[in-house]
Amino acid sequence: MSSNPNRLPQNESEAPKLSISQRAAAKASGAPALEADYLEGLNPEQREAVLTTEGPLLVLAGAGTGKTRVLTTRLAHIIGTRKAWPSQTLTVTFTNKAAREMRERALKLIGPDAGGLSWLGTFHSISAQMLRKHAELAGLKPSFTILDTDDQVRLCKQVIEAEGIDPKRWTPRFLAGLVDGWKNRALTPDKVPNDEAYAFADGRGAKCYQIYQSRLGVLNACDFGDLLLHTIRIFQQNPDLLADYHAKFRYILVDEYQDTNVAQYLWLRLLAQGTGNICCVGDDDQSIYGWRGAEVDNILRFEKDFPGASVIRLERNYRSTGHILAAAASVIDQNKSRLGKTLWTEGEKGERLKVRGFWDGESEARQIGEEIEAWAREKRSYEEVAILVRASWQMRLFEERLILLGIPYRVIGGPRFFERAEIRDAMAYLRLIRSPDDDLAFERVVNQPKRGVGGTSLAKLQTMARADGRPLTTLARMILQTDELKGAARTGLMRFIDQLDLWRDKLAGGMPHTELMEVILDESGYTDMLQKDRGPKSQSRLDNLKELVRAMGEFDTLEGFLQHVELVMDVGGQSGGEEVQILTLHAAKGLEWPLVFLPGWEEEVFPSKRSIDENGLKGLEEERRLAYVGITRARERCHISFAANRQIYGRWQSVLPSRFVDELPEDSVDVASDTGYGAGATGFGTAFGAVGGGVVEDLGTSSYNSPGWKRLQANKAKGRTVSEPSYTFDGDARIIETGSSPGDMAFPLGARVFHDKFGYGRVVGGDGQKLTVDFEKSGTKKVIATFLSTP
DNA sequence: TTCTTCACGCTTTTT
DNA sequence: GCGTGAAGAA
């Protein structure tokens, strides 16, 4: 190795050796360390291309093919061969977590002495970094604040009220969503298409957006979208500045390219115009963030967008068994718009996937609980197990079950630390001390805890502030000079302003920011308020505030802490030990487990009804990619399940198996026959038999057009064993709601039934042959259904 | 101003 | 079924 670390090596053999643990082994096998350790499985041309390609490069990396390895290895190679210094590379990810992991892995390869990777981060953090340098070019002060979703919505509310729009008809949340969507597509207020502006308050959409933007300017703030948009505009309007960045960034690397939105694409394209050395890694089949602006088209169009681009396909999977891959492939193959890859493995075919139908969510959870116990009996660990659900409300049943069984588990996701009300309140106090002009923070805590400054006083302040163009704190001081406010409002506001001044002085006087936080919570009465609240949540709120103080201690200054938190809305989570993981499919991207449960595969739950309603085929295909992501998380075993009846928002509903169940390949799937309910048939028939309730619901109307019925017939035609709903009904009676306690019939006691003649009723009895229903209105008990065969 | 009551609506999640 | 949020009551 060269003794002078600052001398640029003349050729690759002189490049610094790589400090990776397996280096010795690699050497023994005669292969250069990098390739042997990290790019195993690529053919020689691909290896060469990943490491040395100049110009645009797209790596299409299927699930489990080592996507991140490709990116880190390329980065390390560029730095290791001194094609660029670390500071001359730009590496972009979507999440802070991904950025952290990338940094760790890259530093392992290039060694910690190689210099900081100061331009490795998320789109937003890198944009913020740039924007703080050139804030004045965007009409901002470098100390601008970054608003989070909550602030955004509140600002939208103000805009709506100021415009005299009915906030019930046109909700602030909706406007915030529209603005967000426009920003994702890099549309400034003047560029919003007319018809879309009409989607809000009869054509006032673009105007509201305009006002929202000018309010942001006054507040010296931007939202997340602005971080990118301002940067893009600065680049467009200042070619010489852009040229500086072109000279600076010799290589650009992008992770998860399929998740980029229009703004991010433009941002990348501007920066890549310099060297053209942009390497994007992604998988079109794993694009699951369309609903927040990701454009799969970006990856589909890559070769057009970046002329002369090379494309590499990584299709060898190192993660899952053959059956799991076959199942995933068979599902994703139904999607029309995809680039197309075929994953393969040299590993075992492994176990077939299990598909099971259950009567309801409880029995599904019960069964999954048993499977996990069996897994543990095989001396395998709980942390190897994950339950992946479509929506977070589905988690509850599993939590309850695992608690009952005493199985340790952890829910991943859930409310973020910095989004909790108490944390946001505390943060608002800090923001107000840092910048007295932060109106949103002022509004948030001026009456929290209660100081007698209620809606009327605040509204008075706001109208005056708006007329005057001055921030709320300034106006509060002015109004206190007059006798505009009386009684509690006046004393409360005065005390608030005085306290703010006092705390600000303490900070200026050198009080550590952690101590200041404690003082604020104490003197403001916030802690008192929580301690007096005997609610079930108040203790955990107090704990959270303690945790906040602890987290603040990791930063030297208040300013450093605030700037970090605005971008990274998360606090370093404790990594779990021996725990089953429960998480959403979205949160599972990028992770893997030996044993994966995929419950709740029911039409309208997964694929989600709303997704299809709102986005049609596009929505459905995204749901299908979600199914693909789910299946490919499994290394060894994968259990898919669905129920016939499910409680959604407290209401019982009959549900049908997801169409994705049908898309699984028969050869790789076992359908269990122990579903218990339904008409008790076997094979795929069981699955659909169990769903008899769903078919029955529509009896007499459109049941023969329902997807469940059609599939039942199709399966019958294929010669599979199917079970048809085997009961006749008196009139047009239909099951509309089922009880939760399964009796020994297909329709448990308590099932709610509707009858054309008698109205609503509940199942009160039955003997496997007959169903007796008590009708609420008429008071008559009547046998309405007779089973042709005993279930 | 604050407390109480009813209506509503409700994916997925990051920055 | 539950939490939020806005309208009415003390």
Description:
The structure is a single chain. The chain is of the alpha/beta class and 791 residues long. It is 45% helix and 14% strand. The protein has 33 helices and 22 strands. The strands form 4 sheets. Strands 9, 10, 11, 12, 13, 14, 15 and 16 form an 8-stranded mixed β-sheet that branches. A hairpin with a 3-residue loop joins strand 20 and strand 21. Helix 7 crosses helix 10, helix 19 packs across helix 23 and helix 23 runs antiparallel to helix 24. The chain is globular and about 85 Å long. The termini are far apart. The chain binds a DNA duplex (15 and 10 nucleotides) through helix 6, helix 11, helix 21, helix 28 and helix 29.
What characteristics describe this protein?
globular; DNA-binding; 791 residues; eight-stranded mixed sheet; 33 helices
Largest sheet: 8 strands, mixed
Rg over CA atoms: 30 Å
Mean pLDDT: 79
How far do the termini sit from each other? 78 Å
The shape, in one word, is globular
Structural class: alpha/beta
- Total helical segments: 33
Helix content: 40-55%
**Percent of sequence in beta strands:** 5-15%
Low-confidence stretches: 1-36, 673-709, 721-732, 734-746, 786-791
DSSP summary, beta strand count: 22
Please describe the topology of this protein.
Blueprint lengths: L22 H6 L4 H6 L5 H9 L4 E5 L5 H14 L8 E5 L2 H15 L9 E3 H11 L11 E2 L2 H14 L9 H13 L9 H4 L7 H14 L2 E2 L1 H14 L1 H10 L2 E4 L7 H11 L5 E5 L13 H5 L1 H4 L4 E5 L7 H11 L20 E8 H17 L7 E5 L5 H11 L3 E3 L9 H14 L4 H7 L9 H14 L3 H10 L5 H22 L4 H11 L2 H7 L5 H15 L5 H10 L12 E5 H4 L4 E6 L10 H24 L1 E15 L2 E4 L4 H4 L6 E3 L11 H7 L2 H6 L9 H11 L9 E3 L4 E4 L14 E4 L3 E8 L3 E6 L5 E7 L4
The chain binds a DNA duplex (15 and 10 nucleotides) through α6, α11, α21, α28 and α29.
